[in-house]
Write a structure and sequence with these properties.
This protein is of the alpha/beta class and 401 residues long. Helices cover 38% and strands 14% of the residues. It has helices at 2-11, 58-68, 80-88, 100-108, 136-142, 168-171, 176-179, 189-199, 209-224, 240-248, 259-268, 297-307, 310-320, 335-338, 361-385; strands spanning 45-52, 70-77, 95-99, 144-156, 183-184, 254-258, 272-275, 281-289, 323-324, 351-352.
């Protein structure tokens, strides 16, 4: 068994990463037959699931319940901090969909089962063929990546004179006065700090407190330009959907954003664009984990296999906007989504992933708390008064260079 896993991990480059739009060799689609609907009178197996809000629709979950004779008890979270708080409170789930760096942290704490890919035949539908960072072997051992998205810059091409090829366009804009009040930031500690670190030429997984503070200062400078963030209690994916709405309505000109949400915005406003800055960007994976405490491991494996059916994976992507790792689903995606940035390859020379930073996480949390205090006391009052906004470029002047 371990030999089989090693062979699989060596083959799976999981092109969920850099270059999904490249031509890859055709992979034979394997779709395991679904178990028959429950007609025998056997009570359904209860499966306790932890999942990010917005991924699994009630209709899709009903399909799984009917096809697999399972009854879901679902807990939802909206961001990684909330997810980790739930996990710190104890293991109460049989199957979890969590961020890649959280999966790796759970694995380090011996709180995950190794994935038995023999029980998940639809894993063959996952994209193969491209090389991955060495640590991806650990991720694939303890989890099954299901969704991914890149973080880049979204902007309105009708209002911006040139393509923003550097993160400096957001953190150190040349036309700061014109862009004041029209920049956007994700409300997500690790991802936003990670992007700031990349913009400084640092690793988004650094454990150096000085580097983390330097990244925080860069974010603070952007906040001081009245950068907009999603402040609602319902924020998920760092408020990317909110930022997409704001840029599609020309309330924002440049924003940090996920490729998935920018794809939706571009369907509404064809003048919108998405770019991956040259310094590099983050690729974020949400991945399926079976915790050690699971009381229904076989049922969890059956659900993972169900989610990797081509039509089901496509349904997940079409409903959520987030790209799936399932190459066999290609023919079932909404065309506007598949041909937009959600599936596009980042153009920068480097693609980074968030990883577990161990005890250094306290430094990320500390500087983020300081940033949020600054934002709440110094930025929000000004935003709420509408002071300092420059709208001349929206009213007919030349685009911002």
């Amino acid at each position: 068994m371990k030999t089989l896993k090693v062979i699989f991990l060596g083959l799976v480059g999981l092109a969920v990463i850099y270059g999904l739009r490249q031509e890859l060799k055709t992979i034979k689609t394997v779709e395991a037959a679904a178990p028959a609907d429950n007609t025998s009178g056997v009570d359904p197996t209860t499966l306790r699931v932890l999942v990010r809000h917005g991924y699994f629709s009630p209709g899709l979950m009903q399909q799984a319940e009917n096809g697999l004779n399972v009854r879901f008890e679902v807990s939802y979270y909206r961001n990684d901090d909330e997810c980790w708080q739930l996990l710190e409170a104890g293991d109460a789930w049989d199957l979890m969909l969590v961020a890649d760096h959280i999966a790796l942290r759970l694995d380090q704490l011996n709180r995950t089962h190794d994935i038995d890919y023999e029980q998940i035949p639809n894993h063959h539908n996952m994209v193969l063929g491209l090389s991955m960072p060495q640590e991806m072997g650990a991720l694939l051992r303890c989890s099954v990546p299901l969704f991914y998205t890149a973080i880049g810059i979204g902007y309105d091409a009708s209002l911006v004179g040139s393509i923003p090829l550097s993160w400096a366009a957001l953190f150190q804009p040349q036309n700061a006065n014109l862009l004041r009040g029209h920049l956007g930031l994700l409300n997500d500690a690790r991802r936003t700090l990670g992007i700031a670190l990349i913009s400084l030429g640092k690793s988004p997984n650094t454990t150096n407190p000085a580097d983390i503070r330097q990244a925080a200062n860069r974010i603070r400078q952007c906040m001081a330009l009245l950068a907009v963030m999603d402040r609602s209690a319902e924020t998920t994916h760092g408020g990317a959907a909110f930022l997409a709405q704001q840029v599609s309505q020309q309330k924002l000109i440049l924003t940090m954003i996920t490729a998935a949400e920018m794809s939706r915005a571009m369907q509404v406003n064809p003048a919108l664009r998405f770019t991956s800055p040259n310094e590099g960007t983050l690729l974020c994976l949400d991945t399926l984990v079976i915790p050690q405490s699971s009381k229904a491991r076989a049922t969890a494996e059956a659900v993972i296999n169900f989610l990797l059916r081509p039509r089901i994976s496509a349904q997940l992507t079409n409903e959520s906007g987030y790209a799936t790792t399932n190459q066999a689903a290609t023919g079932y995606f909404d065309p506007w989504l598949y041909h937009g940035p959600a599936f596009a390859s980042p153009t920068g020379p480097q693609l980074f992933y968030l990883r577990d930073v161990g005890d250094a996480d306290i430094h990320y949390r500390a500087v983020w708390l300081d940033l949020m205090a600054f934002y709440q006391t110094q930025v929000i009052p000004v935003l709420d008064r509408g002071v300092g906004f420059k709208n001349s470029f929206i009213e007919g002047n030349d685009p911002v260079p």
